Amino acid sequence: MNTIIFATTNKHKIKEIQDKTKDWNVSIISMADEGINIDIEETGLTFEDNARLKAKIVSQCTDKFVLADDSGLEVDYINKEPGIYSSRYLGEEASYTDKMNDIIIRLENAKTKQERSARFVCAMSLYKNGEEICTLRGTLEGFIGEKIIGAEGFGYDPFFYIESNDIIGVKTDTSLGEICLEDKNKISHRANAIKNISEACKHLWI
């Protein structure tokens, strides 16, 4: 069985990707599991740039496959902010409640779901021995709600709403903060990115 190092220190992401790759015939481990402890500055201008940067640097420390992602929220009404700066929006010390409330205020003149359209974006890059194998992205379309609702998920989930979705049986506008991890993993931007990577690269570990 091949081993893939997922280049993140985010425990939520590790759990999500382990759940979504159960049928890959690979073992997903963290950087810490491999004894890699490096702080990578995200200097890219796109999600893909940052995913490639992280995967390349970590893959130079091991002979295993390395998968890295960069993800964030794009809100159309405010020129696709916060984008690649989603985790650092308002400063790294700001809570996600503060971040969400600030964006809600910035959207106070946007009244319709169309005006409040947004998406989660996840770019994923697979490397080995410092060489790029594949970089693809996945998205989840939705809109920014006027209220922060739900204790599930993490980050911006509680104010990001999706409309009805037959895959997970959602019949009305619902925030990701109200959706359990198992269901979120069926439709999320990261799930869609993993699916795209799997379809392009699964021949490597069959």
Question: TL;DR of this structure?
Answer:
The chain has helices at 11-20, 47-59, 96-106, 181-187, 189-201; strands at residues 2-6, 26-30, 65-75, 81-82, 117-128, 131-144, 160-162, 174-175. With 206 residues, it is α+β, with helices and mostly antiparallel strands.
Structure description:
It is a single chain. The protein has helices at residues 11-20, 47-59, 96-106, 181-187, 189-201, and strands spanning 2-6, 26-30, 65-75, 81-82, 117-128, 131-144, 160-162, 174-175. The protein is globular, with a radius of gyration of 17 Å. The chain contains five helices and eight strands. It is 26% helix and 26% strand. The protein has 206 residues and is of the alpha+beta class. Strands 1, 2, 3, 4, 5, 6, 7 and 8 form an eight-stranded mixed sheet that branches. The longest helix has 13 residues, at 47-59. The mean pLDDT is 92.
Topology:
Elements: E1 2-6, H1 11-20, E2 26-30, H2 47-59, E3 65-75, E4 81-82, H3 96-106, E5 117-128, E6 131-144, E7 160-162, E8 174-175, H4 181-187, H5 189-201
Parallel strand pairs: 1-2, 1-3
Antiparallel strand pairs: 3-4, 3-5, 5-6, 6-7, 7-8
Helix pairs in contact: 4-5
Globular, elongated, flat, extended or rod-shaped: what is the shape?
globular
CA(first)-CA(last) distance = 9 Å
Low-confidence sequence ranges: none
Work out the number of β strands.
8
**How would you classify the helix and strand content by structural class?**
alpha+beta
Q: How are helices and strands ordered from N to C?
A: EHEHEEHEEEEHH
| Largest sheet composition | 8 strands, mixed
What would you report as the Rg, rounded to the nearest angstrom? Answer: 17 Å
Tell me the number of helical segments per DSSP (H or I, 4 or more residues long).
5
Helix % is: 25-40%
Beta-strand proportion: 25-35%
Query: Average pLDDT value?
Result: 92
